[in-house]
Amino acid sequence: MSENMEEQEPSVQSPASEAQETETHAPRVARSASSQPLIGAEQVRAHEGAVKSVHGKSRRNVPRARRMSLSLTRIDAWSAAKVSFMLSIAGGIIQIVAAALLWMMLNVVGVFDQVTQIVSSTGLDAGGFDLANVLSLSTVLSAVTILSIFEVILITVLATISTLLYNVVSTLVGGIHVTLGDD
Known about the structure:
Keywords: Membrane, Transmembrane, Transmembrane helix
Structural class: mainly alpha
Protein name: Membrane protein
Number of strands: 2
Distance between the termini: 68 Å
Strand order of the largest sheet: 1-2
Organism: Bifidobacterium moukalabense DSM 27321
Order of helices and strands: HHHEHHHHE
InterPro entries: DUF3566_TM
Pfam families: DUF3566 (PF12089)
Radius of gyration: 39 Å
Mean pLDDT: 78
Largest sheet: 2 strands, antiparallel
């Protein structure tokens, strides 16, 4: 008789217990203000598979590295000019410092004095030749600085012209195609 009573009595549940019951059976899906799901069922399954693979239950749905194919079709000439100018300035400073260090090292080792002695021993010394006076530090640094300024201008102009030529050619060919990977 108790079995009949259970069948006849309507089950009364609170709204909270109904919500708990539906949460255990159906996956939770984020919804927008219009109550439309923000992500699809496929994305929910993919997420669940990724979570399972992290816990070691399933390794089928491990996300693979993404690859993206891009094309470099245009380079801004002003941007290329600024970058090449700054890099050539850095190169010029490196040249000046390297020339000064090299001159100081040659002077400490005594190369200038030895070359002067060799020239005077051959009899080519017509008027008191001294290589250290001809190639003084100030003379060498002045020459290297002038050369560096010329190189800065030349490199900047050539890089800008090369950029403009690349832009023209890339409109005809389509640019450089690059595949980027997310490893």
